[in-house]
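Q: What does the assembled structure look like for these inputs?
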Amino acid sequence: MADRRSLAAELAASWFGSDLPPHARTAFLELAVEREVGAGTEMVREGQPTTGFGLVLSGRVALRLHVPGRGQVTILTVEPGDIYGWSAIVPPYRSTSTGVAVEPVRALVVDAVALRAALRADDALAASLYPRVLEAVARRLDGTRLQLLDLFAGQVEASW
Amino acid sequence: MISATEAPAHGPGFLARKDLGALFALVRDDGRRLIGPTVRDGAVMLDELDGPDALPEGIRESQTPGRYRLEAGRPGRLFDHTVGPSSWKRWTFPPTVPVGTTRRDGAVVAFEPATPDAAPLAFLGVRACELAALAVQDRVLLGGPVADPDYAARRRSALVIAIQCTTAASTCFCTSMGTGPEVSDGADVVLTELDDGFVVTAGSRRGRELLERLPVRLATAEERDAAAGGVAAARAAVAANAGVAAPGLPSRLMAALDSPRWADVAERCLTCANCTLVCPTCFCTSVTQRSDLAGAETLSERTWDSCFTGSFAAVAGGNFRSRPQDRYRQWLTHKFATWVDQFGTFGCIGCGRCVTWCPAGIDVREELAAIAPPPRAVVTGMHLPAVTPAPDEAWLRPARVVATHRETANVTTLTLAWEGQVPGAGQFVMAGPPGFSAAPISVSRARRGAIEMTVRAAGPATAALTALGHGATVGVRGPLGRGWPLERMLDRNVIVVAGGIGLAPLRSLIEAIAAERERFRDVTVYLGARTPRDRLFVGELGAWSAAGIAVTETVDRAGADWLGRVGVVTHLFDHAERLPEGAVAAVCGPERMMEATVEVLRARGIPDERIFVTLERHMECGVGLCGHCQLGRFFVCRDGPVFSIAELGDAFGREGL
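A:
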């Protein structure tokens, strides 16, 4: 386990943390615990209340949707520097996918209820954290749109 | 035998109308078929003529947008008409010509190029605008790096007898295009019609020799004045017509690519292609195959095509100009703007055929005035090119498949025994199995003695290619096009981004870098595939890494057994702290994926001059002669397929270009 000082350095060096002001980083770090899990660990589950908001420091988390007849489909992997469990701070606070560590993962995890309380109480934290989360979600939306086009499929007839 | 009487030593001569038959006889004696105007199907058409009686005597035309009628002209006059629906390109560049035959006898396949049918012709009654049209086609078909051998043979053998116009139709606008009505050059003999004959001048040694054999006397001053007066009257009539504000038009037109008028004209345009078929300069073609029932012999024929047809810019993955407004814009901007970039002249010579023969009566002069209203700019005149035929281009040659490797369910790599020039990284070949059209295929690996093509089964030709087995023969032409700029990457960091089948042309680049790895700095390859099963060259990624090339992969979606990355390819590097300093990027994939990639690369500080993409377009000829792959001022096959984003400018990712 890393000490708080090196965790602070890791947060500052990560994509998510690099753009947060010092106050937000400190506040985030005070709430966070370092978590290490083995491959196969389920971090969040589709449809269930999201218990934690996580920043991946190392390893890979696969976000999966269950499709009857097709099983678990991975639609995105969360890589170091990126977040999972954003639904912890977006109503109705339920996970939109199942997050599974596909290799050993080390993450900074903040309890969902505590994070919501902190964001309500600390306007400065909210003002810097929400845009960064939105940026992460918007990037996924952007990527998902391109995936939706299924560009590598070759011939796709427009049927509208 | 005709004896020359008072052959003119100096100045214009005079040929009496009664002696016109002597001209026909002489031409025939020289072994030429004489083509000239005659009345057929209610129009003045160009056709083979037996004698002067076949000329349209006492006929003139009434031409307005969408309307053409014959009327009575001055009695006895043979050339009072202007231009009908046919043009000389029907003989210099016929609607259908054979390009070659494929013969298959068991496993033996032979590709035989067609021999140009160069029966010598004589053209009688070529107008000044039409001489300009011939010069424009000369520039296109003979003036580039590859000359069209069939056109070259026909054009070289044709004797051109021009006639200066003394009448004009309301659709004529040669004066604004700088092409007439006076004949300046390009003709062997020039006639100007008077009531009782023709003032004649020679425009070439061949023409002078012809006149010396005709009963031509020196023209009198009155005859010369009458001829000049007739042409001046035609000039005045044309000048009074609506015209085209040619000076500065190319830049005005290219600045108006988003004009609402394109959608407006598309409401009226039927995309019937009449305008391109009657146009004397349009040169776009396609190649079609006709096989016998046994499949033993396939004839490939080149036929006129048109940028107005629905499939003209179609590729396996879609259509670059699906809307009528895209096609009208392509046609008009080519004629009046990008043609100038490509060939140094306008593609329009002001004959007005497209106006008359448009069933909807769309008048280019009116559309241009609305889309790119008149100017205050520099005059750009017509600079007619000299005819300088390039060496004949070989047709397909056979190449034997010596190995095949199934990459994915629908992608196969074919190894061909190769004796020709070793393709550069990013170059392509035109390739097709016997009986199929050749398709542009990237060379995915090249070495002395063999090349590899990695082909996705997308259409009939590519499906047939992927089905070929060891020992099969493929028809191939190439290497073609401009590949990756390896020299720009030397001693620099290199970023390679590939999506789907787009890795094929990049594999040759990656291997070229790996072969001389020490000459490049950090090299990073980002790969995107649809699913784990669609990944290409999976067995080779280790070798790339071993050569000091960093490889990162992602797929768009995967099952739970895939432990690698999932997400769009741009996510592989958009969060990277910084991309390598001074990097050069090479990108290939579907156009929309390349757009997204270019956006991210730009945002990470790589300038457009150092981002290179390779474009996919419909290609038939591969050498800049058929017109299909035109993108603004480029022919993708000849000027690309690799371009920097800076070169492409606004053309990159623009809808419908």
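DSSP finds five helices and eight strands in chain A.
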